[in-house]
Amino acid sequence: MFTLKEDAKRQATREACLRQLREYRVGIVLSASGQKKRIFAILEHGAPGRNIPPRPVIRPALTRESAREGITAGLRQAAEATRDGRPEGVESGLEAAGAAAVEAIRAYIDAGVPPPNAPATAARKGFNKPLVDTGELYNAFTYTIERKS
Prior knowledge:
The chain is built from seven helices and two strands. The protein has 149 residues and is mainly α. The chain has one domain. Strands 1-2 form a two-stranded antiparallel ribbon. Helix 1 packs antiparallel against helix 4 and helix 4 (65-84) packs antiparallel against helix 5 (87-111). The two termini are 39 Å apart. The model has no long low-confidence stretch (mean pLDDT 89).
């Protein structure tokens, strides 16, 4: 067992960083119009009546090992900044976690989201890559870091 001694100023800085870390919320958002968000919901959950199979993106992308590693690295950076009393590092770690999550979603789409497009859809698009057409959905994923109210 060991005893950690630190001066009052360092302890106050560490406590302030911990409060700062607790005040933030990191989220993945779809930066798109209401219509595009409805289309994404249909793509994510499917529409059996319109022969559109579900093609979930967010959960499968974020549960991949590579995504978890990137997100964890950012959160670890924020936690270490808290431990070390570096307030500027808390937010940059959260930024890194959010960026890793968005990159994981885009990588999942790039790899090809199952199931494949229907032959008619592939013919219309000229290629068979589900969820890739204009790039609007792909580019609409972003993250936010907000202070909790």
